[in-house]
Amino acid sequence: MNADTETSSLVLAGPHGAGGAFPNGNGGPAGPHFFGYDEVRDPHGMTRAHWQPFYRHAPDLSGPEFTRRWRDGQRVIRENGVTYNVYGDPHGMTRPWQLDPIPFLLTPRESADLEAGLVQRGRLFERILADLYGEQRLLREGLIPTSLVYRNPRFLRPCQGIRPPLGQYLHLYAANLARAGDGSWRVISDRTQAPSGAGYALENRIVVARTLPEAFSACRVQRLATFFQTLITALRAIAPRNKDNPRVVLLTPGPYNETYFEHSYLARYLGYTLAEGGDLTVRDNRVYLKVLGDLQPVDVIFRRLDDDYCDPLELRPDSFLGVPGLMHAVRTGNVAVANAIGSGLVESPAMMAFLPQLCRRLLGEELRLASARTWWCGDPESLRYVLDNLADLVVKPAFPLRNHTIPAMDCLDTATTADRIRAMPHAFVAQERLPMSMSPTLTADGVQPRKTVLRLYLAAHGDSFDMMPGGLCRFGPSADSELVLMQAGGGSKDTWVLTDGEVNPFSLLPAKDTPIELTRGGGDVPSRAADNLFWLGRYAERAESLARLLRCILSRLSERSSAAESPELPALLRTLSAQTDGKPKGEADVLPALYNRDDPNSLTTTLHDLHGAAGLVRDRISLDMWRVVNRAARETHRDERPTYADALDDIDVTILRLAAFTGMVVESMTRTDGWRFLDLGRKIERAMHLRHLIHDTLAVPQPAENAILDAVIEVCDSRMTYRRRYLGTLRFEPVLDLVMFDESNPRSLASQLATIADDVNNLPRVTTAARGPDQRLSLAALAALQTTEVEKLATVTGGRRLELIDLLHKLGEWLPQLSNALTQQYLSHLQKSRHLSNAMTATFAPPPSVFP
């Protein structure tokens, strides 16, 4: 489900000449002219005036300097995690955003004309929506057929009679445009419920301006920040209360939505809280954001969710994405939703057939910006025309159908298409074929022409609209492609709107003289976000602990001819077994524990889980933190069979990446409740791994215990401290004291438990009258360690250190219970089950082979 998935196809009329190259860096035209409007060259083959500064100042598009710059630009896209998730794509949920470095240029005059036409169109849609959800005079007068409204599933009857704040339905409106053969623009579709792409347009601008700074400056390109300021002002204006500083949340369907990156990106850029439906609740007809230990009232919901998914009580009952009771809160005026619920009604392409007469009736004006010629098959005369000219038209569904799907009409022969239209004429529209324009696009074969569609955005401004001085230009996957869709393998371009005057330097950053109220807030962490931060910490620590253990094992395997020459290896392999799937491990299992992507416990899979958890909190971690995680997840993939030396190199790089991530957590994140849950995840996970390591290596004395003791302090990254204190003399008691009891050692078990107790004690609580179960468990674990003597744990009885085993057994029970207590008390909105190996959750039960 996505609020803005393109379902219509655009088919080109006539053959397309392959053409030659576009103008080179010197600005000279090359190659024959091709079919359709050429964005760069005029009919005489000369470079258009507004493109000349670009080609004068951009590097040679086939030269090494441009190649180097664009390679850096693509690296930024990867490292920033800019993705567009196509369902069923082999790249899964991390398909990189496809961006072309050559921009799409609009002249000042053309931009002004488009803005005037789209502003009129936005005002017209406002009047249509107000009437259809109000008096419905347009239906009574026959200006809009009743079946076009009442048969449309996007006509939401619960919205009837609801007047949105300030009477505004559309706060963000977008239109897709294509050129006719003469170069004039036509609107081919409207996006009125939750238009996507504005965030991608902003990201495109950042990358392309960085790649081509000289051309960007020379072309005098207008900035985008003013548009987003207009949007912020529009959302603030509709707040029912707290208009100076309303609480605005950006409602997302969640991380599996194809444009989730944009949702988190916009939330961070606009300063809004990113929320899913489960993060919100309705109490006494008011919407609240569920934060840790509290509920915070919400004034405005900026939704990225389809209309009918917003409220399962009154709209779509099978929706798990919305907020139960939201419609009633809207109806009582306690919360504003942008765009207004129900605004998707006018997205139907069939509406285009009636816009000219509606414009005259409602605005007293002629429609300034024409739509592609459209025929709604529910009209008998239009039906006859469509059936008579079917081969020359593009057929689309008139509106989405919930219970069955209309197949892609381009895949059917003319006779079958005609039969389907006759069976349900009201469900189809036909549009004229537009050739669209051709733009230069960088491909693997050099600069090639591609068909383009332009999406422009408008934000509400008073009773009118302001157009973004830019937009999202999309191009087809090949020169002869009939589809210009991101889902079909297309790409995007930055849109440069040029100006004849000075470029507005406005920025969303406040001016130096702007008064700012001091605050140390930031505690509005939704339970879902805290849950994801908690697991971000757990996966990060799980990956680092496993990497350090694997490095210790592999270094010994690479230095010795067999496992028999390393007496510490059996104990280390037992630890590896306990920290993965619990199955006995041999030398042959070590490399799969690092690389096997099908093993849910391998290091590669754990890093993938870490990357996924970080993606869920993109709006709450820094760009540098994201880049570190992104690189760590990519750098352990090897298609060929690696050697031990290869594996050690990969592990060293991974440990460095994870150390950088931990350093940013410690040094760069403010100590909010979200940070505490991330820290709790790290400390609980490290404590669990330390408990397993100590048990599997030290609970049973071994003949060659010095080698095992050395391996333990190596895995715990405590060799330097031990040697400084004890001059390299290995003994059981000092090793155990260092890795288990020494709170000054950040790698010790005691240090983890002390930090856990401090974090838990500082979590928000409804009452402080009595300690919660999480506090009792954390204090019990710390007290058990602090009141134990190291010497007693060293005592061997019957070939085992029984008191050490008993203490580890208690900790093995308390730590999972503490994790569960935190989840039950604070993290009640889990999105999916998290992977925990059996050994990490089960109560300690030593295998017979270890404890006969």
Summarize, please:
With 852 residues, the protein is an alpha/beta fold.
For the structure shown, list the relevant keywords.
CP_ATPgrasp_2, Circularly permuted type 2 ATP-grasp protein, 41% helix, DUF403, disordered C terminus, alpha/beta, four-stranded parallel sheet, disordered N terminus, ATP-dep_Glu-Cys_Ligase-2, single chain, 852 residues
What this model shows, in words?
Residues 103-475 form the Circularly permuted ATP-grasp type domain. It comes from Limnoglobus roseus. This protein is an alpha/beta fold and 852 residues long. It folds into two domains: 37-372 and 434-497, no CATH class; 527-841, no CATH class. Helices cover 41% and strands 12% of the residues. Strands 1, 2, 3, 4, 15, 16, 17, 18 and 19 form a nine-stranded mixed β-sheet that branches. A four-stranded parallel β-sheet has the order 6-5-10-11, with helices on one face. It has a three-stranded antiparallel β-sheet with strand order 7-8-9, with no helix packed on it. Strand 8 and strand 9 form a beta hairpin. The longest helix is centred in the middle third of the chain and has 33 residues, at 527-559.
